[in-house]
Write a structure and sequence with these properties.
The protein is mainly β. It contains 2 helices and 37 strands.
Length: 381
């Protein structure tokens, strides 16, 4: 009785810092109803364990803090757009939550918008996820994406869904992408020291920024995925710094036309199994400035990684026009273990000859024996 009174009072005062008290044994099987009434400035201390039979959802609330440590097991419908949903919220913080998803939902964690405009000026902006983990615990089910910033799943428009930060989050159970972005207004999404591992359930992509490419990836790891980064349309800016990667096949694929913004990759370590010769390991089809600098790349399958930067083409047939940008590929070290015959004569870096001010120099090819020589550079028309 006393706990119920405290809970009701806490949820009722939106201008005060509230504390939602839940007993450790309580199951939030009606979480949409319970959590949906959270007001601004609420501080919610979660119990050690929660079992969900419907998505845990917070919407139209600002400056809410949801904190563990807690383990959340989702056993709800697989048709749900997410197991944990933050909808049209701003400046909220979620930390120290471990999520075990036991259904094939679209996303484990979803940051999204709602239909129509907010009558009180709410937008999805500047939310922070700290030490939130989507893990594999023996279950056969898996979300398609571990973490999604996507304005559409609840019927929201492609409007502000921006400035979110993920700190030391882990995507360890997914089928398509560890992290996913969609939205032309998804401005500067930041990933700091996050980890992705695609070993469970065939995870394919570390970060898939399908539409609205505007992110910073700093530090962290992406392991055992087919592709580290896959970028799509509405490319504004992408920065990758200091990442470590092992046992992946391809670093980056930017294969959609219409891009003209900068892409920067620097100070990364990559040790994996590149695709067969002729299938680029780093492919960027863009008009924007591509910077690939001071990275250490190791191939463990005897195939030399190939960096291919393509020009942008507009139109088709006789109306097709080629446009050219700037490429800077320098200071990188390529190491190949058990080099296959003929691989040493293949180009490491390939850029269009007509690119303006292209700077491709100082890249080293080091056979596993440690003999250094200048990487062969091919400029293709």
């Amino acid at each position: 009785m006393l706990q119920d009174i405290i809970t009701r009072l806490a949820l009722g005062f939106g201008s005060l810092i509230a504390c939602l008290l839940l007993s450790p044994s309580q199951q939030l099987d009606q979480s949409e109803r319970l959590i949906g009434v959270v007001k601004d400035d609420a501080v919610i201390q979660l119990p050690a364990e929660i079992v969900l039979t419907s998505p845990l959802r917070i919407q139209d609330a600002d400056r809410v803090t949801l904190k563990g440590p807690t383990t959340v097991r989702y056993r709800g419908p697989s048709t749900a757009p997410g197991a944990f949903i933050l909808a049209r919220c701003g400046y909220c913080t979620v930390k120290d939550v471990t999520l075990i998803v036991e259904a094939d939902v679209e996303s484990a964690v979803l940051v999204t918008n709602l239909p129509g405009a907010s009558q009180v000026g709410k937008i999805s902006t500047a939310n922070t996820f700290e030490r939130v983990r989507v893990i594999h615990a023996g279950q056969t089910a898996a979300p398609k994406r571990a973490f999604s910033v996507d304005s559409r799943p609840l019927g929201g428009a492609d409007s502000n869904n921006e400035f979110h930060t993920f700190i030391q989050c882990q995507a360890l159970n997914f089928t398509e992408a560890g992290f996913y972005l969609w939205g032309s207004q998804a401005h500067r999404i930041r990933y700091q020291d996050c980890d992705v591992d695609g070993v469970h359930n065939g995870g394919q992509i570390g970060l898939h920024s399908e539409h609205g490419v505007y992110f910073d990836w700093n530090g962290g790891t992406i392991n055992r995925c087919k592709t580290n980064f896959r970028l799509g349309t509405m490319h504004t800016r992408a920065v990758v710094r200091g990442m470590n990667s092992e046992h992946c096949q391809r670093f980056l694929w930017l294969g959609t036309s219409g891009n003209s913004a900068p892409l920067s990759v620097e100070n990364c370590r990559w040790d994996g199994e590149p695709p067969a010769s002729g299938d680029p390991w780093f492919f960027a089809w863009t008009l924007g400035h591509v910077r690939f600098e001071d990275n250490v790349i190791t191939s463990s399958n005897g195939i030399m990684p190939q960096v291919v930067v393509n020009c942008y083409q507009r139109g088709s047939g006789s109306q097709q026009k080629r446009m050219y940008g700037v490429a800077t590929v320098r200071g990188n070290t390529f190491q190949v273990q058990n080099l296959k015959p003929g691989e040493s004569s293949k180009p490491v870096v390939s850029v269009p000859a007509a690119w303006n001010r292209s700077d491709v120099e100082g890249n080293l090819f080091i056979p596993w024996g440690g003999i250094e020589q200048q990487a062969k550079v091919a400029r293709t028309p």
